[in-house]
Write a structure and sequence with these properties.
The protein is an alpha/beta fold and 326 residues long. It contains 12 helices and 12 strands. It has 2 domains: 4-92 and 173-325, 3-Layer(aba) Sandwich (Rossmann fold); 98-172, no CATH class. The two termini are 33 Å apart. The mean pLDDT is 90.
Length: 326
């Protein structure tokens, strides 16, 4: 498809450890189209961070790409040289990290850092400073020209995250990766950041890969959703279909555990029993089987394939397969 910007095709990534290979990602496949927002959701340990580092090729020394491709604008990033990757990072692909308090250099002013980001530009320093002020204004920082001379500690957490977004968008990238950018913020600031991201995405016409634990944020912001569990994609599709007609038990349990779906007061909040399996010793069958209250004998023995369950809706569950073949 000509409108596909990022395509992950059958990607498997391991970490070599003393206990054996830890299978962090297994046969991951999905795409991000130009000018759309795709959400990645799942528990801690599902592989979201490994996926991001694989796309950017910022990986640990013990990382091994076992199979698959990561195609960005048609080119396989796993075959790119380090020089080619450095040219892409921050220019074609930018990232906003999770913790705004750890993003900036504490000994340089915000303005100096935003000027340094434009190191590939041959424009004079005055123009770079003017562009930095414009970006601060775009993310809602008041009196941006004067605040360029301030240091990171002089800003609140919410403002620092806005500045991080401004820095990531300085080069007008085609793809912005947002790694849980609202996790460290309170609910009011979270709403403001989401609204600002939506506005900037429409203005710059860039694609966003948005990673989050917060289902409410995913539902509000994203066009499509990819649900990951224990290093695998278990469901993907249009955001409305995922939230209104989930086809995988894990997705349903995630939605049930979202506080926004709890209608009555309860002393104990709902949870998904059990833990994410050991990825260095993956059990046979469905990876979610030990935590699923609908598991059958087939789930114990065979891994369900990720198959279509509707228009642009995929799920990996034998229950859906039985419905189709019944």
């Amino acid at each position: 498809m000509t409108d596909v910007l990022l395509e992950i095709d059958n990607l498997s990534v391991d970490y070599e450890t003393a206990r054996g290979d830890l299978k962090a990602l297994r046969n991951i496949s999905f795409d991000v189209r130009k000018a759309e927002i795709v959400g990645i959701v799942g528990e801690s340990g599902c592989g979201k961070s490994t996926l991001i580092s694989s796309i950017l090729r910022l990986i640990a020394p013990n990382t091994r790409f076992r199979s698959g491709e990561i195609r960005f604008d048609g080119s396989d990033l796993l075959k790119a040289t380090e020089r080619e990757m450095r040219a892409l990072r921050g220019d074609e692909i930018s990232i906003v990290f999770q913790d705004p308090m750890q993003t900036h250099n504490p000994v340089l002013s915000v303005g100096q850092q935003m000027i340094d980001i434009q190191h590939r530009s041959k424009a004079p320093k005055g123009e770079k400073r003017e562009k930095a002020a414009q970006m601060l204004a775009a993310v809602g920082i008041p009196d941006p020209e004067a605040r360029l001379d301030q240091f990171p500690h002089e800003f609140s957490g919410g403002m620092r995250q806005r500045i991080a977004i401004a820095m990531a968008l300085m080069s007008e990238p085609n793809l912005l990766i947002a790694d849980e950018p609202t996790t460290a913020l309170d609910a009011t600031l979270e709403v403001q950041i989401i609204e600002r991201l939506q506005e900037l995405q429409r203005e710059m016409d860039c694609a966003i890969l948005f990673i989050s634990h917060h289902l409410g944020v995913i539902a509000e912001l994203c066009d499509r959703v990819v649900v990951m569990y224990a290093g695998a994609v278990v469901e993907s599709g249009d955001v409305r279909k995922i939230f209104h007609e989930p086809k995988h038990p894990y997705t349903r349990r995630l939605i049930e555990c979202d506080p926004g779906h709890i209608k009555t007061r309860a002393r104990i909040l709902p949870t998904i029993p059990g833990e994410v399996p050991d990825l260095a010793n993956i059990p046979d069958g469905c990876i979610f089987r030990d935590r699923c209250n609908q598991a059958t004998e087939r789930c114990m023995a065979h891994v369900p394939p990720l198959e279509s369950v509707g228009e642009e809706h995929m799920a990996a569950c034998w229950l859906n397969h039985e419905e189709v073949t019944a």
